[in-house]
Amino acid sequence: PEALESHGPARVIALCNQKGGVGKTTTTISLAGALAEYGRTVLLVDFDPQGALSAGMGIQSHDVPTIYDAMIGREKDIRQTIQPSAIAGIHVIPANIDLSAAEVHLVSEVARENILAGLLRPVLDDYDVVLIDCQPSLGLLTVNALTAAHGVLIPLECEFFALRGVALLVDTINKVKERLNPALQVDGIVATMYDARTLHAREVLERVVDGFGDTVLDTVIGRTVKFPDASVAGTPITEFAPQHASAHTYRELARELISRGAIA
Ligand code: ADP
Ligand code: MG
Questions:
Q1: What is the Å distance from ligand 1's center to 156 Cα?
Q2: Structure confidence at residue 1 (pLDDT)
Q3: CATH value at residue 239
Q4: Structural domain count of the chain
Q5: Residue ID of nearest Cα to ligand 1 atom 14
Q6: Residues 28, 131: Cα–Cα separation, whole Å
Q7: Quick one: average pLDDT of 86-96?
Q8: Could you identify the atom of ligand 1 that is nearest to the CA of residue 221?
Q9: Pocket of ligand 1 (CB under 6 A)
Q10: Mutation test residue for ligand 1: of 25, 26, 198, 250, the one with most atoms within 8 Å of CB
Q11: Which ipTM was obtained for this model?
């Protein structure tokens, strides 16, 4: 892949699903790994107090300025919160458990939904893509992510009850679009943890495609134990096991998002 000479302004994509354990963080990290291989510069924003993205990128998120410090105005310069990672082309704004206090802290702020958008604006020119790893809720932090974003990518676990939650998420996206961010788009639903050997997973995938049509991306992420291994190693699957099928699948996801225009 040919490296690009100049970058930005970045397209901002929020990875959202209010259900936990559906592959948001894994998809954020793995997609970043693939995009970096294709010469894109990526800023990852850990927007979950669990800090799984920070850990999964090998970043110690204690005793460093985090997105929380920027959100509450304690850190005035967003650049002070940006950490390099072991992968060239990927930077990270980390989070830790402090972020769990943000919703309470921000509730009385003016324009509280626009804070993340305002923080990211000055650095958009430095990157091709900003990926925001949301927490599993539809609260104020996720609304901030959706307000800061151009697009939403919805990781969806191939499991029956997963379908119910998507309708609620789409409602929230539509409200944010109406009231806060008219340009917001759904970039796609990406099926995760797909096990082709089970009839159940195949049926769920069929129902998702029936219900959401073209919004469902062609790329389907299979279930494999390589992902937990990569997160323990603190690096994207594309770096941890470059020839593993799942690394190739995330490269395919990157190419599909580029060909759909979600990423330049
Ligand atoms: P979320 O961010 O939505 O809570 P994660 O990405 O943290 O979800 O994934 C939850 C758990 O499932 C993690 O332990 C992760 O390593 C694992 N995992 C993620 N994607 C897959 C997959 N395709 N196959 C198997 N395990 C996966
Ligand atoms: Mg997560």
A1: 11
A2: 45
A3: 3.40.50.300
A4: 1
A5: 228
A6: 7
A7: 97
A8: 23
A9: 20-26, 52, 136, 192-193, 221, 223-224, 227-228, 231
A10: 26
A11: 0.99
The encoded tokens of residue 136 equal 């599993």
Please give the single-letter amino acid code of residue 163: L
Q: Which residues sit with Cβ closer than 5 angstroms to ligand 2, an ion?
A: 24-25, 52
Residue type at 238 in one-letter notation: T
In angstroms, the CA 105 to CA 24 distance is: 25
133 near 148, Cβ under 8 Å? no
206 is written with which tokens? 């069929």
pLDDT number for residue 127: 97
Phi, psi of 244 (to 5 degrees): -70, 150
Q: What is the pLDDT of residues 97-116, one digit of tens each?
A: 999 999 999 989 889 999 99
| Residue 3 falls inside a structural domain | no
Residue with token string 């000479």: 5
Burial label, 112 (beta-carbon count in 10 A; 0-12, 13-18, 19+): middle
Classify residue 155: in a domain, yes or no.
yes
CA of 27 to the centre of ligand 1 (A): 8
Host domain of residue 24: 11-259
